[in-house]
Every structure is written in structure tokens, then in C-alpha cells.
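Example 3.2
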Amino acid sequence: MAVHGSSDILVDELYETTHRLRRFVESRLRTHGASVARLRALRMLARSEQPLRMRDLSEMTGVAARTTTSIVDGLERDGLVERVRHPHDRRAFLLRLTDKGLRRHHEAEEVDRLALAEATAALDADDRARLRALLARIREATA
């Protein structure tokens, strides 16, 4: 049962579902030394064809700059990310995954995939298509 935090029970249930889903995935990732926030940063760095500025990573993940710095500091401390000098701006640094970071990214993606598959296993293909269509309608209405 969702906690009533809005004037619409549907919105409360959507929030509660996404909150539980995040906690579920977070618990799986934590057993592998990862987190949703760290995975998102690793994912953006892995998908980028070139090293990213901290600001770009912050925008891509939708996380505040201060939080992104904290996440990147931890990733760097663990040897997963390295800061390299920007080729055209001596004051700036770029972020890129290390080989260890790339391996950890692949491992965390697999943990994430398995956790999400487990969480949504009760939905068949029709259920998934219907839910996606309904969610798309909400996104369109709020665009």
C-alpha cells in the first residue's frame, strides 16, 4: 500500500513502485560493491565515445554537480575512473573509465539486468507492452 504523498493514489503507487524497485536493485548491487548512482556514472562513461567533463557527466546522469563529484571521487579512489587533462583547457580535467572500471561496469550491468528481470518476472510480454504504453501516455502528457 502506497503512502499518500500526493492527491492522486495512482501517482503515490507509481512513486512507491519506483522507490521499491530502486531499493531492490540497490540491494543487489551493494553485494557487489556497487550502487545505482555509481552504475549510472559508469554507464555514461562507458557509452561515451570520448572522455567526459564532470559537468557533462552530471547533466547526463541528472545528478547535482556536488553529488557527481562525490561519486567520481569514490570511483577514482577505487581505480575505476581516472581524471586526465583536457587537451585544450589546462584548468579542466576529463573523466574516463580504467580497464578495471570497464570490467566493473560490465559486472554491475549484469547484476542490474538480473535484478530487474527478477523484479518484473511476473509481467508477460503483453503486460509489459501495456504498461510501457500507459507510462508513455503519462510522459507525453507531462512533456
